[in-house]
Description:
The structure holds three protein chains of three kinds. By secondary structure, chain B is mainly α. Chain B is built from 16 helices and four strands. Chain B starts with a strand and ends in a 14-residue tail after the last strand. In chain C, β1 and β2 form a beta hairpin. At the A-B interface, α2, α3, β7 and β9 of A face α3, α7, α8, α9 and α10 of B. β1 of chain B pairs antiparallel with β3 of chain C.
Amino acid sequence: xxxxxxxxxxxxxxxxxxxxxxxxxxxxxxxxxxxxxxxxxxxxxxxxxxxxxxxxxxxxxxxxxxxxxxxxxxxxxxxxxxxxxxxxxxxxxxxxxxxxxxxxxxxxxxxxxxxxxxxxxxxxxxxxxxxxxxxxxxxxxxxxxxxxxxxxxxxxxxxxxxxxxxxxxxxxxxxxxxxxxxxxxxxxxxxxxxxxxxxxxxxxxxxxxxxxxxxxxxxxxxxxxxxxxxxxxxxxxxxxxxxxxxxxxxxxxxxxxxxxxxxxxxxxxxx
Amino acid sequence: xxxxxxxxxxxxxxxxxxxxxxxxxxxxxxxxxxxxxxxxxxxxxxxxxxxxxxxxxxxxxxxxxxxxxxxxxxxxxxxxxxxxxxxxxxxxxxxxxxxxxxxxxxxxxxxxxxxxxxxxxxxxxxxxxxxxxxxxxxxxxxxxxxxxxxxxxxxxxxxxxxxxxxxxxxxxxxxxxxxxxxxxxxxxxxxxxxxxxxxxxxxxxxxxxxxxxxxxxxxxxxxxxxxxxxxxxxxxxxxxxxxxxxxxxxxxxxxxxxxxxxxxxxxxxxxxxxxxxxxxxxxxxxxxxxxxxxxxxxxxxxxxxxxxxxxxxxxxxxxxxxxxxxxxxxxxxxxxxxxxxxxxxxxxxxxxxxxxxxxxxxxxxxxxxxxxxxxxxxxxxxxxxxxxxxxxxxxxxxxxxxxxxxxxxxxxxxxxxxxxxxxxxxxxxxxxxxxxxxxxxxxxxxxxxxxxxxxxxxxxxxxxxxxxxxxxxxxxxxxxxxxxxxxxxxxxxxxxxxxxxxxxxxxxxxxxxxxxxxxxxxxxxxxxxxxxxxxxxxxxxxxxxxxxxxxxxxxxxxxxxxxxxxxxxxxxxxxxxxxxxxxxxxxxxxxxxxxxxx
Amino acid sequence: xxxxxxxxxxxxxxxxxxxxxxxxxxxxxxxxxxxxxxxxxxxxxxxxxxxxxxxxxxxxxxxxxxxxxxxxxxxxxxxxxxxxxxxxxxxxxxxxxxxxxxxxxxxxxxxxxxxxxxxxxxxxxxxxxxxxxxxxxxxxxxxxx
Lengths: 271, 598, 145
């Protein structure tokens, strides 16, 4: 409590991490700040001790130093104090991780995210299964409302992938045979880049996506528009948004060497 | 042939030659085989130890070249230096070579094999032929893994962790993956046999008076490493056997997608779980990194006292800390799996945070060793200090990663890459080469050049910070690991370029080491028995030690038998925080029957 | 012997406790089995060493059954042992031997055979068998075969 107040009040620097554009991400950011400060204090303290010893106790003569090999009080102190510090840190960790992983029972927008080699599919079951699919450099975009709870159900069609949005301070594995679910409460509209973070084969570096957070009203109109355009073009294969779903297109890739395989067919990795 | 070895009389007595059971008393220069056959049939722990060190250094340089190629690829966001497939092979093999074929074997196969029998006063390891077998399995295992580069389809390319289902036959076909697994089976058994040998030697072959609490901390650390090897490596071997079975014998142990139909009937119970691979692998993987770290902690605990002219500070605390680190390390494996959503977060997070405590105890004991000493900054000492700084920061970032909320946004990014390189580089490279510079005179009878050693250190140290600090920054900005390309326009390129420059500085430093080896052979500077005025038993014998190590032994009354023998006057000095009239009775080197509490 | 026994029994006890805690907290089978295995890894040699330690100090079966003249702890367990007391035969150490190399090459062949084809495995297995026979004969005769 006190730390949170101090941190928010005093404009503590971010130490290189993103402040977090979701409520969960902001919790993680505050924990990061706390840990960074604790790490800095302890690190600098030990660093100074080592440096002091190095400079102060250089060999100046052949005189034999005192052969001190124990000091019970110090030894007990630097056993007990770190244990206490660690336990305190753990309490903060425990509280924060419960907040971040909590699944609320409020009204939410559901997105089913499926990862595959090497792209993403976003499906909205509440809107007649509107789909957005993208492969590699196509960077599919997941449109979601800001300010509301977005529930993601994450799974994979083949190998383990990682759903990672840096600015949300969050990532989670997409695994075959297991669906992970988590909540995101995005605090600000905007477009946020995402990327696959768990190594998944040949084009792992190109498995990009983005998340576009819009106002709830804009989200509703987008979703309804997608519903109607996809139901009207039901004869053609795949989703409508961005016309990305046609897997038979040959797509640019930097090496331009291997043919791309469709994500529904099981194929070996191109060589 | 088998030799029955007799222990000689104590120091001060005339040299008593080692006697063989056939009654002859010949010298040990010629024992039958010569040349290459002598090397192939040798069971001498010193020969095996040197063979291990040379092989592991070759692996180190090979893996280093792979790292340089990767860093060149990452100079530009979309460089076409190597194809994505080649890049994936490079980081897989770089990790595999460094972790499985350099860091571990150099420590427990090389240095420990050579030094532990000497430090406990034994004539050899407990199981000499098993020791030799360990080396041959290691060599053939290394060759097997490297064969991957020459088979169709290239080397293994699924990362050194080989997660299922990426490592399945469907997703990673080709012999490269199979030779990787089989090579690891060979080196795994090699490590297990070495673990058995270490425990056996330390439990059974200590010299009279060398009680457990008088052993050097390096030997204590090797004992704990031996136990950890026995805990961890069988699990890896079993996991790999099961993966191989999935790939080639039609099992579905890790497979959850292709298993639902067997003989056309839906059989959900025939399915396995990719998570099982992660659990098994990391149950091995986390103790593995402590198997890699503990020997190097031991090296630093040998070097710091010698170059501070003081004993180890807090000996029992060090032993307790090593035991705690090993114990805790087996309970934290799933902190590599926080983002699977399938692990008990508080259990693993608490235990991971707790590991910082014994590591901190070690740090304070190392500082206490140096405190009020007379520090001499020879090359081994410089490298040990480099270890202290590197591991300090690496350890602190490890504590950050132990918190799942922080791990959620740093997992699989360059933040983690920077963290583990700091800790591994700190231990295997800084402390490892501290050990090499420290024990090289004992092993080869000649010194390594000091000036070249200092140049090597500073290039490596500065290059190290230049390589890995930018990686922390770019990881926090969101750059994932194991990527051959990254988006331009995000400001990541400058950090990658700085990192590449640092990597080449480190390479330059290691070139100097090779030059140093050559110089030490061409213009040898003879070392003598104890060039560093060191403390432990191995410095009592000649450099290099004779066949079966000792022709005579000093009395062993403390953890510093050689120091006590050479500096009997040091007993009058204070050994604790409060001055006592007659010292603290620890070191009765007059061989009296006084019961000393250790 | 006492410290070795305590060390290994401690390993067993520690992993017994951690394994039990882990099971009741998570009901996860894989990790629990590994922790139980590690507990056994400590208990098995630990009880062996403990048994021999107790024999050394005069108890025939752990805590009862007096031995008249206990042999006493080993020289390397005594603080005040002198090197001269340990003079004499330590043990027999196998000297140079070709069999570890042959066994290693056999294992290499076997493993490559699993990857590339049975034709390499057959010489590999033969070398392993030859080496196992050779190393056993060498041990029995105390010299090279």
